[in-house]
Amino acid sequence: MDKENVTRIGVSLPPKLLEKFDAMIEEMGYANRSEAIRDSVREYIRKNEVLDEKGEMAGVVSIIYDHDVRGVNDLLIELQHKYHNVIELTTHLHLDEHRCMELIIVKGDTGKIKEVRDRLTSIRGVTHSDLLLAAAVKNQH
Q1: What is the largest CA-CA distance in the chain?
Q2: What residue ranges do the domains of the chain occupy?
Q3: What is the CATH number of domain 12-50?
Q4: Cβ proximity of 87 and 106 under 8 Å
């Protein structure tokens, strides 16, 4: 990397977060923090830029939830039926006695996909959610 085309910045992190980051980048084989931070920033930008794209996309919504929370299963099923035109496939994994993971394969309008993710995230009992929009979908007609 050409040092003349690099801007130095300072970042403040809590010690425990930095310890975890350092352990992770060492395990992944990064030569230094700067390389890992550059890759992290690129990935953050890529992941968020794709959310602004218009048109048809395909991707995965992942959620982790506590199935013991009253009504969570019914709400998840109801939402999946409501958005059947965007949800292509779901798969379910039991993580332990209380927690489950759902992977929801989606395809359709980016706005509708984000709506599905937001609705899933807001359900009481859902403790984690993520959206990976992987690819633009070409119109087959």
Answers
A1: 58
A2: 12-50, 56-136
A3: 1.10.1220.10
A4: yes
What predicted TM-score, i.e. pTM, was given to this entire model? 0.69
Residue numbers in the chain where pLDDT is lower than 50: none
pLDDT at 134: 79
DSSP codes, 99-121: EEEEEEEEEEEHHHHHHHHHHHH
Sheet holding 87-94, edge to edge: 87-94, 99-109, 56-66, 126-136
Q: Is residue 33 within 8 Å of 78, Cβ to Cβ?
A: no
Rounded Cα gap, residues 124 and 128, in angstroms: 11
Question: Class of the 56-136 domain?
Answer: alpha beta
* CB environment 48-63: b (16+ within 10 A), e (fewer): eebeeeeebbbbbbeb
Report the pLDDT value the prediction gives residue 96, as an integer from 0 to 100. Answer: 97
